[in-house]
Amino acid sequence: MTADMTRDGRSVPSRRLSRLWHLGRATTDLAAGVGVRGMLELARSRRTGEVARIQLSPGATQRFTDRLARMRGAVMKMGQLMSMDGTDVFTPEAAAIMAQLRDRAEPMPMSQLTKLLEREWGRDWNKRFSRFEFKPVAAASIGQVHRAETKDGRRLALKIQFPGVRESIDSDIDNLGFFARNLGFAPKGMDVGPLLEEARAQLHQEADYKAEAASLMRYRALVGNDPDFFVPAVHEDLSTDRILAMDFADGVSIDHLAESDYSRAERDRAAGLLVRLMLRELFDFGLAQTDPNFGNYLYDAASGRIMLLDFGAALPVPREISEQYRALALAALAEDDAGLKDACIALGYMAPDVDAATVRVLLEMIRLSSEVLRPGLYDFGTSDLFERIYVKGRDMFMDEAFNHLPEPITIFLQRKFAGMFMLCRRLRARVDLRGMLDPYL
Questions:
Q1: How is the beta sheet containing 252-253 ordered, strand by strand?
Q2: Catalytic amino acids?
Q3: Which of 15-19, 137-141, 157-161, 290-294 tops mean pLDDT?
Q4: Bridge partners (DSSP) listed for residue 158
Q5: Angle of helix 193-206 versus helix 73-83 axis, rounded to 10
Q6: What CA–CA distance (Å, rounded) separates 260 from 254?
Q7: Residues 409-425: what's their mean pLDDT?
C-alpha cells in the first residue's frame, strides 16, 4: 500500500471548561477585531438603516477562524454559518478568511488517526487498500475526508470522525446557550431552550455515521438517475460508527463558479438546479439536506453534474409542514395578509396572540422576502434584497419581535432556504424561482 503522509495536527479540546475558554477567546478576538471604530459603525448603521461594513483586521479574523478550526464541532458550525453571510457585512478581506471555515478544520494528529483506524477496522486494516492518502482532502466541523483505493479497485472518500467531537457536542451547546442567555445573543424573552435542544439532537445525528449512511442511501434513491446530480453510494463493508465510506466525487466547491473561469450560463444553470432540488426536497422527497455549506456541493465541469455531499443534517419534512409552506407561498402571491398571518401562526413564526404591531412588521418582512417570487428570472447579482432583509431583520431583532420560536424543523429549513439564496447571490445568478414553484401551488 502506498501512502501520503501529513504533519500532526492538534487534538480537539474536549472538556467543557476548555471549550468554553476557547470559545471565549474566539469571541474576544472577534470583538477586538471590530474595535471602537467598528462599534461606532454598528451604532451608526442602527441609526441610519444602512448595512454596516465591519472592518475586521486580517489578523483578528485569522485568529478567530483558527480557534474555531481547532475546536471543530458545534462552534465551528456557527462560524461556518457566519462565513456564508449574504449581506456583505464583512469586508472582502475578512470574508475571504472567514470562508476558510467552510472547508477547513485542523486535521487530527497522525497518532489519533492511526489509533482510530485500528480501533474501527482492526490492526491489519491497511491490507484492504492499494492506496490510502493520510493527508485529508478536506476537514470540516465533525470529521475529515481521506481519499483511498481498495484492493478491488474502488475509489473511495472516507469520512473519519474527529475523536472527542461527539463527546463535546453537549458542552458546546451548553456553552452557546450560556452566551445566548447572558450576552444578549438572543432577544429578551425568547426561550432558546427548544432550539438549542433541537440543535443538540441534530449535531448528535450528524455525528452518527450509521444514521448518515441511511439518509445518504435514501436520498440517493430519491434522486435516482437524474443526469444533473451525483449522490455517492455507501460502501457498507468499510463503514462504521466513526467512518463513512462513500464513492469518491470529483469537483470544485460550487461557489468557485463565481470566478471568471466559468460562464454566466454555467452559474445560472448550477444555481437553478440547486434551487429546483430544494423545492423537490420540500414538496416531493419529504427529506431535506439542511446544511447549506457551499462545500457540500461540488461542480464537475467536465460532466456539468453537481455532486451532493454530507447528509448528516438530512431531516424528514412532515407533509403538514410542506402544506403550510405551500399556504404561505399562495398567500404571499395573492397579497393576502390574513392568509399570511394564518400560515405564519401554523408554522410557528408568530404566536396566536401576537400583538397587531408585531404582526405588521413580520408580514412586512415576508412580503419583502417574497420579491424573489416575481414572474420571470430574478437577478440575484443586481438585487439589494439581502441588504434590505438584513436591516429589517436586525431592527426586528433589536425590537424583540423575534421572541417566539417556530417549530425546530422550520428553523433548519430556513437555514437551507437562506443558504441557497446566498449561493445564488454569490454566483450572481438569474433564477426563475416563480416558474419552479408554480407546479407545486
A1: 229-230, 305-308, 297-300, 252-253
A2: 291
A3: 157-161
A4: 146, 245
A5: 100
A6: 13
A7: 89
Half-sphere exposure of 367 (CA within 13 A, CB side): 14
pLDDT of 172 over the 90 cut = no
Higher confidence at residue 429 or residue 175? 429
What gap in Å lies between CA 31 and CA 26, rounded to an integer? 9
The cell numbers describing 310, all together, are: 454530507
Where does 301-410 show beta strands of DSSP type E?
Answer: 305-308, 314-316, 378-379
* pLDDT value at 105 more than 70: no
DSSP state of 131: E
Where would I find the H helices in 281-336?
319-333
Tell me, rounded to whole angstroms, the distance of Cα 405 from its chain centroid: 20
Q: What is the dihedral of CA 350, 363, 313, 92, to 10 degrees?
A: -130
- Chain CA centroid to CA 248, Å: 21
Q: Which of 12-21, 346-355, 423-432 has the highest mean pLDDT?
A: 423-432
